[in-house]
Amino acid sequence: MCPEILASPPSDIAHAVTFLLREAGVAGRDLRRVINRRPRLLASSVAGRLRPTLYFLQMLGISHIPRHTHLLSCSVEEKLIPRLEFLERSGFPSREARAMVRRFPQLFCYSIEENLRPKLRFLLEKMGRGLEEARDFPQYFSFSLGKRIRPRHSACVEKQVVLLLPAMLRPSDQEFAARLKVS
Hints:
Keywords: Transcription, Transcription regulation, Transcription termination, Transit peptide. This protein is mainly α.
């Protein structure tokens, strides 16, 4: 997954491990899982990538960094800030955009062109919903547009039912079908 580790000096790997344990707050028992999930952490520069990203996430108010260590190897300038700026350009005030990523940091992992933009466009144009629904339920962006959002929206339109996004998207297929029958 990350062949660069093989070319990294052992001292750099040790420095990254020390950073994860001491500064990022990863528990020793969780270190193996964290590295297995995101081996790139070991090949990332502590001073050039890991520490600046940690400070940025903390500045945003993202709590419990050990749950989001996969974000530490991301570039603040190339990945994190562009997603915040996309949300702001889409109409979310800066405060709301920051609150969205604070509540759902996985937003930083999604492609703007392949995920965020098409799903936001569908929400606003096809579903006729407002930005406040995405603000209140940023997990909306984690659902598949083709396999979950669009089919469930179509089923709701067909039954002339309007459900809040969490009620429409979170339930299993069986629970969703049962909910439509009751409505």
